[in-house]
Every structure is written in structure tokens, then in C-alpha cells.
Amino acid sequence: MDQSIAGLLSGFARMLEPSMLLACFGGTLAGTLVGVLPGLGPSAAVAILLPVIYGTDPLAAIVVLAGIYYGAMYGGTITSVLLNVPGESASVVTTFDGYPLAKAGKAGVALSLAAIGSFVAGTLGLVFLTLTAQPLASLAIAFGPAEYFAIMIFAFVMVSSLSGGSVLKGLLSLFIGLLLASVGQDIVSGQARLTMGQLRLMDGINFVPVVVGLFGLAELIDTILNPSEFHFGKQQKFKLRSVFPSRSEVKQTSGSMVRGSFLGFFIGVLPGAGATIASFLSYGLERRISKTPQMFGKGALQGVVGPESANNAASSGAFVPLLSLGIPGSATTAVLISGFVILGMQPGPRMFVEHPDVVWGLIASMYVGNVMLLLQNTLMIPVIVWILAVSRKQLPIVVALFCVVGVYGVNNSLFDVWMMLGFGVLGYAFKHYNVPLTPLIIALVLGGGAEEAFRQALIISAGNPAVFVKSGISCAFLVVSVLILMMPTITRKLMPPSEQAA
Amino acid sequence: MINRFGFPALAFAIALVGALAAYSSRGLALFEEFTVGPGVAPVGYGIAVAVIGLALGITDLMQSRQTTQSELMPPEVKRKALYFVGLLLAMVLLLEPLGFPVVATLFCFAGLILVCEVRPLRALPTAVGIAAAFYFIFVVMLHLPIPNGALLKGLT
Q1: pLDDT in tens, A110-127
Q2: Complex confidence, ipTM
Q3: What one-character DSSP code corresponds to residue A13?
Q4: Which helix (H) or strand (E) holds B32?
Q5: What is the helix, strand, coil percentage profile of chain A, to 5?
Q6: In CA terms, which of B19, B24, B104, B145 is 20 to 30 Å from A386?
Q7: Neighbouring residues of A140: CB distance < 8 A, sequence distance ≥ 6
Q8: For A189, which of B38, B112, B131 is closest by C-beta distance?
């Protein structure tokens, strides 16, 4: 505990530098805009920025990327409430009650309470993160290759089965990612694998073009094919004075904030179950315990505040497995891992030993960023809405140009740009046919490590595969993984025959 | 028709890639002393991709499908997406011979008109502005060696 507090204080000392405050402000503002602009999600925005962070100060780069991630959770509320258009998936549920509130002339109150809820949840989530990340990392530092392999299998299975839709499609995406991760020189024997005689593939597939293509370009194509038509009407115009909620409104929603914080944080910690699931679960919970459930869908403040608190707490929770175990829980955290790797760091328990300044600086920046976001999302709403109105038309062209220039700049190679285009088209096809992209990217990032851990564990045990079930931790993770994979079959078997037929 | 067979075609193509990956890795050793060889991962993952791809493709063909979202899309929206991808391909093809400043301006100009439906008179200054801003940020400030093409080669 003392270690965590000392680390956090040193992080705050670093964050007081003007360049860090500027990075934090830039990242959170960019995140708010990403959340506001339909068609550009946080994973795409972080992916697009990856090529730019080469050679920059590691902490400043990570602060910007993380700021985009949690900032997008705040920004998504604005278009959900004002225009009935969710800026990103975690804000879909906010439209249910946010837009009716805007139509009733309560847009200002809905937005400010959502921002306050997001602030409370984000900060509570950070307190949990501060308290849990280092102890978990200290525990994980004693893990051997068998435990690591089991944890990675658990992450793969969770992400494939919880990404939504068919488990088989999730597994297809996962194995494509693993196959891509096996391209390049073998770590043990040095033999070339799947390189097709190309020397540039000997180091493996560079994940920047893959990530930018799958998330950035695919999302742009999707935006062009599914444009969100919205018009700025009366409900989008409100005075700044109207953003201050009354005492009774704060009292009415304070329970939703706290419930959303706890629920969101714990959902966020689980790999695969990210902010979107947290926001939907929170909405369901709020409606179930409400004294006026009939108001939900017609303009209940709790229906906005609960889910918004939950998605922000989930984004803090997602940093626990990322920083302590090196396991990303969502698409955006998987892309963030790529950012860490580009900057020469490997997220995981050793981060607290090898790069404590970056870890604690990042956590401190999130506290500071939450305050900045609270101000940005209350006082700057009219400016943000104006930016949305002005820039949304040109957005696909500017972002596409950014993708091409950024990816070219990584290795000064057109091969990478062609690869990005190929993965962009594949990414769109996957989106169109509901094949989740998150398992692919997580497998691409962690696949090499999983294979290495598997082979190391076998070498240590002189080839005895029982090594994976000897340790309680690895055995537990593997058993849970098998159970999760078998869950659909078990549930079907337990159903009455009439429902099975249906 | 394309939409009806779109997913099975994608799934079978992926299955084929998986099978080819497994086949081309057959020369790699599957076992080494005390551990698995370098061939296990590409062969194993390739087979898994092939099997799951085939299973998904066949299952989809056997199911009766309802009208897909893309069948409901108006043709002009589909055309815009095709223009966008086509313009991107053209930009990458012409990047080295024509250079970034020219290609970026042309891409933005054509993209703004064809994809974003901006009027040509407004698109031209916007395109020049965007390309100039990119050139200033990436080439002048960040010193990114983006190809300048024959036009600017003599100037730099």
C-alpha cells in the first residue's frame, strides 16, 4: 500500500511538468472529439496515432494514447444526448434516455450529470486501480511460463467468447491472429516461418499496419457505407447556465453513480467484457431497482448517469490486467499494448519494476485527465458541438490521409501501406459479417508470447505436459477457460426441450 | 447474389489461406528435445483456421438468410465506398512517381467531391489546405521522408 502511494506521488510529481499537462490535455480533448465523432472509435484513433509516437517521450506518448481511450468514454455522451447518435459503442445505451431528456429541454442537466458521474466513476475506478494493480503485479512476478501460458489462454478464450455474436467466429478471428503472430523467424530454432521468401517478414508482421487497417481504415469504410444522418435542431441549443444540476437531481442520481462505478470497474477488469457490456448491464440494473421503471426510455436521469459511470469505471478497470499481467481486456487496450511495445516496453508485472515512472505517471495522468475531462465536457460542450458540425463531412478523407502517411512513416515502406489497405478491406468484411476483430488483434499481440511460454514450460519440465496442471493457478485458469468454451453447449443441454427447438 | 454468398466466400477464402499456411509449413519440425518444434504453431493454427473457416462457410450456406444490411443500402452509398477504396489504391500507386504533395492534393480533391459531396469550388481550397497542413506537419516539422516525386525532387 505504502509503495503504491509513494509511486502515485512520484507520478504526480512527473505530471506537474508543463509538457505532461499539455500531453494530458491534448489526449483527453482528442478523446472527447473521438467520442463525439461518429465513425471514429477510440481503438481506431489510438491505432492511427501509433505511427506518430515513434521516438517520442514514452510517458507523454502513453498519456496521450490513454487520454484518447478514457476521454472517448466522456465524449460519446454528447452526441448520444444531443443528436441521438452514439459516438462510440459504449454510449449506445445513453441514447435511450439521453435523447428524450434533450427533447424535453433537459440536455444541459443530462450532460452535466453524465460528466459528473463519469468523473466520480473514473476517479473511483482509478482508486481501485491504484490499490490493486501493484499487489497483483507483485503476485504475478512469481509466475512461471506455465502460469503465463494459462493466463493468456484464459484471455484468448474470454475475448473470443465475449466479443459478441458467434463463438466460432470469435475463434476464427483468434486463430487468424495467432497464425499472423507465428510469421517470421522462430525464436528457438531461428528458422523462417510463413515468410514466403520475403526478407521483410523475417521480423514478423509489423502490427501497426494491421491495427491501423483493421480498426482505422475499416471503420472509415463502414462510416461511408452507414452514414449517421443528423440535423442540428432546437434541442442541441442550450445555455451554459442550464448545465448546472439542482441538488435534488444530484441526490436522485448519486446512487446510480456509485453502483455504475463498482459494476463498471469489475466488468472492465474481465478480459473481453469491456465498457459496452458494462453500460448495458448498468442500464438494466438501474431500471430493475428504480421506483419508476416506466420512466426508462422516456427520459430517466438514472438511465444516463448509471451507464455513463459504468463505462468510465470500466475503462479504468481495463488497465488492471493490462498493467499488472500484460493482458489487454478490450480492442483499445490491445492497441495500447502495441503502443507500449513500440516505445520499447512490455506491459506486465515487470513494468512496475522496470518502468515505474511510466506506470505511475500514467495512473497519475488519469486522475488529472479526469478533472480536465469534467471541465471539457461541461464548459466546452458548445465548442465541441460546433467542431462536430464543421468537421464531420471531411473526416473520412483527412483520417485516410493520416493513416497512409502515418503507416508509411513507420518504416518508410510502401509494403506496409499495401498491407494496411489489405487489412482495411478485411476489417470491413469482418465488421460487415459480424466477425469480431478484438480476438485477432489480441492474438497478434500476445500470440508470440503465448507460444514462447508454452515451449519454455515444456523445456523446464523436460517435456512433461503435466506442468500446465501442476500449478494451482495455471490449472484454475485452464479449467475456467474450458468451461467458458463449453458454456453454450452446457446451457443448451440444461434448457427444456421446447426452448432447445426454438 | 453476391451478398447471399459473400460470407461463405470469405470463410472459404480464409479456410484456403489457413490450409496453405499449414501445407507450406510442413517442412518445419513438429518436435524438438523436450518441447514442440517451430512447425507446431503455423501448422496447428493453419489447420484450425481452415477447419473453422470451412465450418462457418458450410453452416452459412445451409442456413436460410434474410435480407442483409448491404442489400438495403442505396447504390450511391455503395458507389461512394468503392470510390473511397479506389482513390486510396490510386494514391498508394502514385505516391512514389508523383510525390506526396501532388497525390495528397488530388486524393483530397477527388475524395471531397466523390465521397464527401463537397462542391468543387469549395473542395479545391480545402484539398490544398489539408495537403499543405499534412506536408507542413509531417515533412517540415517531423522530417518524415515521404516521397516528393519528380516535381519537388529538384527543389529539396
Answers
A1: 888 888 888 888 888 888
A2: 0.90
A3: H
A4: strand B31-32
A5: 75, 0, 25
A6: B104
A7: A324, A325, A348, A349
A8: B38
Residues A18-74: pLDDT tens digits? 999 999 999 998 888 887 776 677 887 888 888 778 778 899 999 999 998 888 877
pLDDT, tens digit, for every residue of B67-93? 555 556 778 888 888 999 999 999 999
Check CB contact under 8 Å for B33 and A404.
Answer: no
CA pair distance A100, A103, nearest whole angstrom: 5
Contacts of A193 in chain B (CB under 8 A): 25, 28, 38-39, 41-42
Q: How far is CA A248 from CA A105, A255, A301, in A?
A: 18, 12, 12
Interface test with B, best of A157, A172, A191, A461 (most B CBs within 10 A): A172
Cβ of B6 within 8 Å of Cβ of A433? The answer is: yes
C-alpha cell at A350: 515487470
Most confidently modeled of A99-103, A384-388, B19-23, B36-40? Answer: B19-23
The verdict on a CB contact (< 8 Å) between A400 and B116 is no
Which three-class secondary structure string do you get for A87-147?
A: CCHHHCCHHHHHHHHHHCCCHHHHHHHHHHHHHHHHHHHHHHHHHHHHHHHHHHCCCCHHH
Q: What are phi and psi of A423, to 5 degrees?
A: -70, -25
Cα–Cα distances in angstroms (integers) from residue A34 to residues A59, A365, A476, in the given order: 21, 19, 39
Asked if A401 lies within 8 A of B11 by C-beta distance, the reply is no
